[in-house]
Amino acid sequence: ICQLAELETAARLQQLDAFTENSDLEPTEVIVSVAVLLTAPEEVSGNISLTNDFLNVVDNIINVDVETLQDTQESSNTSAKILESIEFVGERIPVENASGP
Q1: What's the gap between Cα 81 and its chain centre?
Q2: Of 12, 22, 79, 96, whose CB has the highest number of CB atoms within 10 Å?
Q3: Furthest-apart CA pair in the chain: how many Å?
Q4: What is the pLDDT of residues 7-22, one digit of tens each?
């Protein structure tokens, strides 16, 4: 999983999504997944497709066992880091004006 950080953003997020689909992740796997995920916000910002991929990974991670998430929050502040990255990415989601120019 550590090698994912070296991939192009789209490939990194797709492989991270596949890895995190398993909700039985161990604390170390959650910590590393979050670390890899946090390499993407700058590149994701403003790209709706990459933003969706990013949020899919976030969704996978937050569906992990509550005890595991608590452990990783206490040891590595993972939940706070995810929330911060969601805020960063969310502020840069392109919004289309459906009512016209």
Answers
A1: 10
A2: 12
A3: 49
A4: 899 999 999 999 999 8
* Amino acid at site 92: R
Task: Extract the tokens encoding 6.
Answer: 């070296």
pLDDT in tens, 81-100: 999 999 999 888 777 665 65
Ramachandran angles phi, psi of 27, nearest 5°: -55, -45
> 93-96 long-range CB contacts below 8 Å, 24 or more apart?
93/46, 93/48, 93/51, 94/46, 94/48
Cα 75 to Cα 92: distance, rounded to the nearest angstrom: 29
Q: How far apart are CA 43 and CA 62, in angstroms?
A: 22
Q: What is the number of other CB atoms lying within 10 angstroms of the CB of residue 54?
A: 25
